[in-house]
Design brief:
The chain contains eleven helices and twelve strands. The protein is α+β, with helices and mostly antiparallel strands.
Length: 331
């Protein structure tokens, strides 16, 4: 169901129902790329059944899917066609096209080739947990997740989102767990991690299928390298990779999570998978946040900084940078 998650906090004033969200998303339903359209993006039924709802409510968890289609047009093909057109211009006029004309020829070549290009489709799952006021995006990159966030804020009136941040840095916490071998209660450290130095060399050491409770790892940490990725498991039910930017990657559900569950019929598979994923992860996420010192309280920080006798611009900067606020030399 989910492979990667980026977690966002929903603003306290946003209230919406499934029918209201459904109505808003219907304005940008997915439509395949036109002949000269490079890409298309829109909402599609999470069940992959035509005309099914755009928002599925599974046990109080709301699931959506953003579908994307892109025409695959290799740059080498565009360049070859552009060169052919430029050669023809030179033959007809006796001079090579300038920079501006070459750019126009490239655009012309792209429009000419797009209708012949293959299309590639992908999708991004979105999960809203209204009880915990969290929104999760199954995206492998921050840039892709931000595209989804921008679209949701544009379409869902009053929605405010900010990327979840913890009171303590994930990198600092992962360093402590590796140094003393004691992760938060309910979690275990698995056999994969990435360590990176903070100096200009940006040296990287990766361990895969390797024990991490060894002196060599501790020496790397003592030498200044910090964890950027760490494989972990939660209560022998879910395995995942935690990153230093609080992304949850490589999510996999373990055998214990399936105990006591009957094999679903084909038409019930979506509901069963969704119930399993949301049920397990909605418990894992709060415990992970607690293990990272709890969620950073932006509202409390903003109120405290507003009361300080500092210029507004400085207060605003500190409100967006908790680390700077802690280091500020106030009397």
């Amino acid at each position: 169901m989910f492979k990667n998650l980026m977690v966002y906090r929903i603003g306290p004033n946003w209230q919406a129902t499934v029918p209201q969200i459904e109505e808003a998303l219907e304005k940008t339903v997915f439509v395949e790329c036109g002949a000269t359209q490079a890409q298309s993006m829109g909402w599609a039924p999470p069940r992959d059944i035509p005309h099914a709802p755009l928002v599925e409510d599974i046990g109080g968890h709301w699931l959506m899917k953003l579908k994307l289609e892109q025409r695959v047009l290799p740059g080498s093909v565009v360049k070859r066609r552009t060169d052919e057109m430029a050669a023809r211009v030179e033959l007809e006029t006796g001079r090579k096209p300038g920079k501006k004309q070459t750019k126009e020829l490239k655009e012309q070549a792209t429009l000419e080739l797009l209708p012949m290009a293959f299309t590639k489709q992908s999708s991004i799952k979105v999960w809203i947990d209204p009880a915990q006021q969290l929104l999760m995006i199954d995206a492998s990159s921050a840039s892709r997740a931000e595209e989804v966030v921008s679209l949701l804020i544009k379409e869902l009136a009053g929605l405010q989102l900010h990327l979840l941040q913890t009171a303590e840095s994930p990198a600092v916490c992962m360093t402590a767990w590796l140094m003393d071998g004691v992760p938060p209660a309910g979690f275990t450290i698995d056999r994969e991690c990435e360590l990176k130095s903070g100096d200009e060399m940006k040296s990287v050491v990766r361990y895969a299928r390797h024990a991490l409770d060894i002196e060599e790892v501790r020496q790397h940490l003592a030498g200044g390298k910090a964890p950027t990725r760490l494989a972990m498991s939660w209560k022998d039910r879910v395995s995942f990779m935690l990153t230093d930017t609080l992304q949850i990657k490589k999510i996999s559900f373990l055998d214990l999570a399936f105990e006591g569950r009957d094999s679903p019929e084909k038409d019930e598979a979506f509901d069963a998978d969704a119930a399993l994923a949301t049920g397990e992860l909605s418990k894992l996420i709060p415990e992970l946040l607690e293990g990272l010192g709890g969620e950073h309280d932006f509202l409390a920080s903003g109120a405290a900084l507003a009361a300080l006798p500092v210029p507004g611009a400085v207060a605003l900067e500190l409100a967006s940078n908790p680390a700077a606020a802690e280091a500020a030399p106030w009397d």
